[in-house]
Amino acid sequence: MTAVPEFEFRTSSACQYNNNDPRCVEVATNVPGKVAVRSTVTGRTVEFTADEWTDFLGGAKLGEFDVTA
């Protein structure tokens, strides 16, 4: 039986981590075909397929998720 690799999370370079306000997002891309995103506040993790993650990043780069007032 093959061992399932653990996610190795890294914190976004845009995160200004502050011990008094530790709201950051961490991403793991080390497991083939999967991407995991984790909140530093709750520790909750959401998993995506590599294709879903690529589609999300493409939409974000195009402004698809921009918040308007």
UniProtKB/TrEMBL annotation:
It comes from the Bacteria. InterPro entries: DUF397 (IPR007278). It holds the Pfam family DUF397. Residues 9-61 form the DUF397 domain. This is DUF397 domain-containing protein. The lineage of its organism: Bacteria, Bacillati, Actinomycetota, Actinomycetes, Kitasatosporales.
